[in-house]
Amino acid sequence: MADVAKLNQVTKGFRDGEQYHQVLQAVDLQINRGDTVALTGPSGSGKSTLLNLIAGFEMPDSGEILLNQASTSHWQDKDWSHFRRHSLGVVFQQFNLLTPLNVKDNIAFPLSLTAQPWSAWCDYLVEKLGLLPLLHRQVEALSGGQQQRVAIARALAHKPTLLLADEPTGNLDDVSGKQVMALLCELAQESQTSILMVTHSEECAAFMQKRWHLSQGTVAIYEK
Ligand SMILES: Nc1ncnc2c1ncn2[C@@H]1O[C@H](COP(=O)(O)OP(=O)(O)OP(=O)(O)O)[C@@H](O)[C@H]1O
Hints:
Elements: E1 3-16, E2 19-32, E3 36-40, H1 47-55, E4 62-67, E5 70-71, H2 77-87, E6 88-91, H3 103-113, H4 120-128, H5 144-156, E7 162-166, H6 174-191, E8 194-198, H7 202-207, E9 210-215, E10 218-223
Parallel strand pairs: 3-8, 3-9, 6-7, 7-8
Antiparallel strand pairs: 1-2, 1-4, 4-5, 9-10
Helix pairs in contact: 3-5
The structure holds adenosine-5'-triphosphate.
């Protein structure tokens, strides 16, 4: 099965004044097409850092990251933009919704970047995420849970090959959280989207096929 993301000996740390804080130590990982992975680990262990590296929001200190089997070592901003627009969906803790826009325009935004029209798939996502009554509301007027559902729809609108999600159900109640998890699994199966999801919830982790646990700079891999 083709890999969509691969890390070879990736090391990352941050300087804090005089001190250097090592977060990831020579990490080797691979996400194949259609894999769904729960990423767990204590607070501060580097889960968000790992997602940021794969999204190109941070650069590794050493090692190599391959995306869609291409090395990113010499990628420039335009290469990262191309990858994000065509292949990547992100749902991070800050939803980063576009506040002057309504729900529909927020969901359509990633499509507009590659000149794609609103599709039947978008209608399906809107319906599944319970956003139909909210489509023409301004996003800033929505609750945290509603905004989270908009962020999920926006991340999936262009059918990415890889979805990176940081606690994607953190603001949802139990029932809608489970619905969203079921939707993500359905998506992974139907369109072979791979998912790497940070979660502190055992229930959410159970929806994913694999489990990676990050601790003291290294990742332990558990296959179910
Ligand atoms: N831009 C940065 N500058 C300096 N230190 C950083 C930066 N980003 C992350 N860190 C540090 O790296 C470590 C890992 O942070 P990260 O946010 O990846 O952890 P996490 O596992 O996602 O934590 P949580 O579960 O609390 O969200 C922390 O000690 C954090 O302070």
